[in-house]
Recover the amino acids of this structure.
């Protein structure tokens, strides 16, 4: 069995992957379920992420909100985003744990030009492989959620790994382990969808008529899903895309353009070659040289 | 072979150096750009010391090309202004391709095809420079939105393919029309070549000392 097969890859950027070894059981898709309605915004998940992944987020500045840091960085792969949602006389504090959604159809991977810099395991986790990353930033353009960050010091792209190194040994991601209210669940994708169903029934019984699961099909579903109180308006949650999909521009750039461009270049080369062997070179004859002499002589006399 | 008039000067030493800096940088840009454009050509990054070095060096070669091409642009743009004879020439492109250019209007320093190459490359290289800056994340990542970067990526790739196609026409024409390449290597052409392909220009040149 090859190394790539042993890694259980489903997709590998800018390359094809061997199918999983024949004797292997079918892969089980995993997912993280973030129940926004149970989140208290304590940021234990952020701390756990830094600790497990041994990341160092430098002390920054406050922008007057609870968002700290104010955005995802190369060290902060997850960030709590706080939204004050006012409707009528009511105020709701919507706290969304932002980070990589681990799309089933990953735009970052499709945009990546470096073979093996982005991989998707058969369990659905999308991971960046730094030694193959060339720091071009194409993943940033491919991502519908604005997740990858390029380091100014290492020139590599970083994002949440869904703790692939923990999952591979049967552990839940560090953030899920640390959450004190169990707002973050981890398990098979089927189990997470089933559990979300129960939570949605509960939320609806408590007046959240539009409660629902965020598992956007525009990116083939995600391996990080949210339970939202207002699933009809995901953008309420600090700009969570209502209908995320890989940009059509990226689709063209990474789709039809690639074969068409090479075909056009090959055609131009072939046309030139065919022209040369059928029409032959355009040569200057002795007659042309004589005419030139004649013209020059005429000029001299004038 | 009888003795003929001395070769006609076509390009100064400065123009030739300017041209070859542009040519070399364009080829390096095409190789490094294609390497990052299509996974099947990623192996070309090996020519530049690997993927990271390719990513680093490509925009800098682009800067060299932009400056160098600007030099060519100012040297030659007045000679590439379109005139009525060029329209006639284009209408008879079929005859030219069939090696039957006799009977067409006399051509100045550049024929209509060469002028189209000139203006095509000028416009495309300008578009490549603009879209390339948007994609140069090392220095300019924060100045544009992700959507603008996506659009730039598509424009950059499209224009690059355009430049490569025009480059193929340019190089092929130099191979096809014998006696052309020495204009850019030695700076001069034979009287016969000038008389046959650029007679109007030849008439101006023969009078000169």
């Amino acid at each position: 069995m090859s190394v790539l097969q042993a890694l259980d890859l489903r997709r590998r950027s800018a390359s094809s992957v061997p199918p999983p070894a024949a004797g292997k059981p079918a892969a089980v898709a995993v997912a993280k379920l973030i129940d926004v309605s149970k989140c208290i915004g304590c940021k234990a998940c952020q701390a756990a992420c830094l600790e497990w992944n041994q990341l160092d987020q430098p002390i920054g500045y406050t922008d007057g909100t609870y968002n700290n840091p104010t955005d995802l960085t190369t060290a902060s792969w997850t960030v709590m985003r706080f939204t004050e949602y006012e409707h009528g006389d009511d105020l709701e504090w919507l706290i969304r744990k932002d980070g990589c959604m681990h799309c089933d159809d990953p735009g970052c991977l499709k945009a990546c030009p470096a073979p093996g810099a982005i991989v998707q395991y058969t369990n659905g986790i999308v991971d960046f492989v730094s030694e193959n990353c060339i720091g071009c930033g194409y993943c940033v353009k491919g991502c519908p959620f604005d997740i990858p960050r390029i380091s100014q010091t290492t020139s590599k792209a970083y994002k949440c790994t869904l703790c692939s190194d923990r999952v591979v040994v049967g552990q839940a991601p560090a953030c899920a382990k640390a959450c004190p209210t169990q707002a973050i669940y981890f398990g098979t994708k089927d189990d997470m969808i089933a559990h979300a169903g129960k939570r949605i029934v509960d939320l609806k019984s408590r007046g959240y008529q539009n409660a629902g699961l965020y598992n956007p099909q525009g990116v083939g579903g995600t391996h990080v899903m949210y339970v939202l109180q207002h699933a009809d308006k995901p953008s309420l949650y600090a700009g969570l895309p209502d209908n995320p999909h890989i940009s059509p521009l990226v689709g063209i750039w990474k789709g039809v353009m690639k074969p068409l461009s090479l075909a056009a270049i090959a055609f131009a080369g072939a046309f030139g070659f065919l022209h040369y062997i059928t029409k032959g070179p355009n040569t200057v004859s002795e007659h042309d040289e004589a005419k030139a002499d004649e013209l020059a002589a005429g000029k001299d006399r004038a | 072979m009888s003795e003929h008039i001395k070769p006609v000067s076509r390009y100064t030493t400065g123009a030739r150096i300017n041209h070859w800096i542009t040519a070399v940088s364009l080829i390096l840009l095409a190789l490094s750009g294609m390497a990052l454009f299509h996974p099947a050509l990623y192996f070309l990054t090996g020519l530049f010391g690997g993927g990271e070095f390719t990513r680093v060096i490509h925009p800098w070669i682009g800067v060299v090309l932009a400056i160098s091409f600007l030099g060519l642009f100012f040297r030659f743009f007045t000679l590439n202004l379109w005139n009525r004879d060029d329209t006639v020439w284009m209408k008879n492109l079929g005859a030219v391709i069939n090696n039957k250019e006799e009977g067409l209007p006399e051509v100045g320093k550049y024929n209509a095809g060469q002028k189209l190459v000139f203006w095509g490359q000028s416009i495309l290289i300008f578009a490549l420079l603009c879209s390339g800056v948007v994609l140069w994340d090392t220095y300019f990542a924060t100045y544009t939105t992700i959507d603008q970067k996506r659009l730039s990526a598509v424009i950059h790739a499209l224009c690059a393919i355009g430049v490569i196609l025009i480059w193929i026409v340019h190089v092929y024409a130099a191979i096809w029309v014998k006696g052309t390449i020495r204009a850019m290597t030695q700076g001069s052409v034979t009287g016969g070549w000038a008389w046959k392909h650029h007679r109007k220009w030849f008439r101006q040149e023969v009078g000169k000392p």
